[in-house]
Amino acid sequence: MRYLLVEDNKELAKAVADRLALDGHVIDHAPDLATAQGFIDVAEYDLILLDIMLPDGDGRDFLASHRRGENSTPVIVLTARSQVSDRVGLLDLGADDFLTKPFDFSELEARCRAVLRRQGGSAINARSFEGVILDSMNSHLTMDGRVEFLRNRELRLLEIFFTNPAQIFSKSHLMDRLFSFSEDVSENAIEVYVGRLRKKLDGSAIKIETVRGLGYRLAKTE
Known about the structure:
four-stranded antiparallel β-sheet; 8 helices; Rossmann fold; alpha/beta; single chain; Arc Repressor Mutant, subunit A; 2 domains
């Protein structure tokens, strides 16, 4: 998953980004609202982590504008305010959840998972396609009783395919979802991860199919 972290505290931002990156998530860090808007204009995000008090404005105004634009990307607000009225106000503005600073990183991870499950219309961490089960919580695939464990980016790539089976994803789109602006990688990296996943899916009911000139999609094995 690709997250946008809007936080002006450099130490906290680095700690959050490092922790989430351990799970294979891609994190773009914006220290202010202008940078955040610039990122949103050119990239697609699965989740936004939003601080309130920022150098160039109030995160609540950003949240309100985000929702007025009918942007459905879920938002978790990181706030030092603990009053009930403050939390109610954030939810009414369109926040999907909030965390009061200081927070435990394990709770942040759990809330991210919960919000993303709700966004996907699911109450569980597992998805299935043609009998193959992808367990995001435990980072493995189950197929005909066989279990294949996944590395972080292998998991995130399969999550994209499993969320939209049969949809064709271009290499550039997959690059955008798997790597941050700060990472200098080529589209060959996608070929490497697809190759690894094909080996792990070998012998199962599904495959990652190349659609010439367009990209890749998840398909049933013939």
